[in-house]
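Assess this today:

___
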Amino acid sequence: MAEAVDLPDQEPGCPHPREVFGLIGHEAAERSLARALDGPRMHHAWIIAGARGTGKATLAYRLARRALGARPLSDGTLASDPDDPVCRKIAQGAHLDLRTATRLNVGENKVGASIAVDTIRTLTGFFGLSADGGSGRRVAIIDAADEMNANAANALLKTLEEPPPGALLVLVTHAPGRLLPTIRSRCRRVDLGPVEADILSAATGISDPALLGLARGAPGRAIALRGAGAASLYRDLSAWLSMLPKPSRKGAQQLAATAGKVETFKLFADMLCDWLARAARAGTGMAIGEIEPGESLIMARLAAQAGPEACGRLWAEVQHLRAQVEGINLEPGSAVLHGLNRVAAVLAARQGSATP
């Protein structure tokens, strides 16, 4: 039996978007898509853009269900009856008129660094077939479209320029600026912003201010962070950083023990990079959103002492450490200690503090 791999279009700890029937927030964006779908001339290609975990793929599958003829619910959105045969087939990944393109190489059961050209060629070939269902449409979801390599992006252009009858392409993207201008110009675009904290909290049952702050208004991310114990990890990291320029050696060792697995290290690296990015902004006098009370003053002080550009260099170093953990199997606990030592050395440099 092939070993299971994490799907690149699924948030850790969350169901796959094709199995999710509720959308948290984004009602205005969804209603605009619903009006377009019910209109006389539905555009053949759409970009759904926003931060990770905001619900882009969930919205894409809601659109796909309705486009393929699922029975609608009478609320003016793209909601459809979960018991409809179209919905059940899509939830099972078995609808013949829906295809997806991700970084997953199905044949090798491996996740690549980018969406390959062969994946897109297979997708464009799919549009040359006759629709199997009664809707007359064939739908493709590319998630995330900004992960296509150059050859794949160019292969997609022909279909965008000369769409077959009944074709509907939905490009989910975290970074629309990375898409080719020629792709962006041939698509209509819907942007999903952060969901308000009270709406997110009511829908997910998450009330921890730290989790809500870390989620940045992204429901999928909030659920994934809750499952990963992110609030506790961030509080420990924030407490250690608040001690600079004289951090706790024991605290660093405890963080290294907690983040001693690859997946936890990824979360730790994301948190540290986010902290450094906010510290750089705070050091230039910009207002930032606090996750832990009082951290903006600590960030501003440290960034002012070392220079905001030092935070940028540290951010790049932490990203490099993350790549080493993932790419060459660098031991995560050692990477945590090295990263914290570098942060302490650089941010404390102006005060002559020694590296812990």
In short: The first strand starts at residue 45 and ends at 50.
